[in-house]
Specification:
- The protein is mainly α.
- The chain contains five helices and no strands.
- The N and C termini lie far apart (65 Å).
């Protein structure tokens, strides 16, 4: 390695050291939380997936209870919920109107 190559390498390393931002950890998607904590020793912020799963389970249990006992909640039966889910939402028409 000649003198100019050594000088370029030193300049490159000094530039990297100058602009290195090692104090601020990068933004990390919640699914990579374990890797994040292994690399940086910090916990990634917690997500809301668990809360959403619990809410969905509660709503599904309420729907099953409505269907099994033929109960109406706010004048809505389980058959009305099923029909609404199965009906065509008309998304294509709504998009064309925009």
């Amino acid at each position: 390695m000649n003198q100019s190559e050594k000088r370029r390498k030193e300049l490159l390393e000094s530039t990297r050291a100058l602009y290195r931002d090692s104090r601020i950890p990068p933004a990390v998607h919640p699914r990579y939380g374990n890797i994040y904590s292994d690399l940086y020793g910090e916990e990634a912020p917690a997500g809301s997936f668990g809360l959403r799963v619990v809410l969905c389970c509660i709503l599904f249990a309420a729907f099953v209870m409505m269907d099994y006992n033929d109960v109406k909640i706010a004048q809505v039966s389980s058959q009305m919920v099923t029909q609404t889910i199965e009906s065509d939402s008309g998304l294509a028409e709504a998009w064309n109107e925009l």
